[in-house]
Amino acid sequence: MKLSISVARWTWLALILVAGVVVAQDEGRETAPPAINTDPMTAERLGELIVRVDENAQSEGSTWAFTLVDLKVFVVYDMVADRMRILIPIGPAEDVPQEELLRMMQANFDSALDARYAIANGQLWGAFIHPLSELSDDEFLVGLAETANVVLSYGTSYSSGLFTFGGGDSAEMQRKLIEELRKKRT
Asked: Which residues does 145 contact at the CB level (< 8 Å), separation at least 6?
């Protein structure tokens, strides 16, 4: 099961993640990026970020469901355990050949970065797991982009899109979604 990725879809998806200081161009002059909220993440602020990504996002208790670039995304959090997960289904785990399992484990080591390939309840997932209270707006949006990128690159580059050590992917194409989502931070 391999996902086909059109150049336009891939380009849009990669718009979120550039780490470090982002500088915008405004009529030829550099301007500082918006201030990053460093307060502990709350359920309310997490919900606000999700709705900025998809205004049709739905929540039920501590679970959110929404769409990003035609991908069904779930965000689950637990305030008591201080954990948050971004989960995007890829497909049934039983359909994954042994050589692809090996490739995913290699990617978890060098090219998936903070996103991961995971298997739970018979399903193959793209996943990002982080302590909730320490999660910044930017880290959430970057994690979302990395997770979407590992799902979209499943079967090809197996990359989160930010950096690929020894890879041949076009970093510029993958970064576009990262940059776009970063514009949605508070």
From this structure: 13, 14, 15, 16, 17, 160, 161, 177, 178, 181
CATH number of the domain that residue 149 is part of: 3.30.1460.10
CA distance to 90, 105, 118, 175, per residue, from 123 (Å): 7, 16, 8, 27
State both tokens at 124: 């193959």
Whether residue 156 is contained in a domain is answered as yes
Residue 112 lies in a domain: yes
Containing domain of residue 152, as a range? 7-182
Contact 142, 14 (CB under 8 A): no
pTM of the model: 0.73
Nearest to 87 by CA among 137, 18, 150: 150
Q: Is there a domain that residue 2 lies in?
A: no
In whole angstroms, what is the distance from residue 61 CA to residue 15 CA? 29
pLDDT at position 79 over 70: yes
HSE-CB of 67 using CA atoms within 13 angstroms? 4
What does the block give as tokens for 8?
């336009």
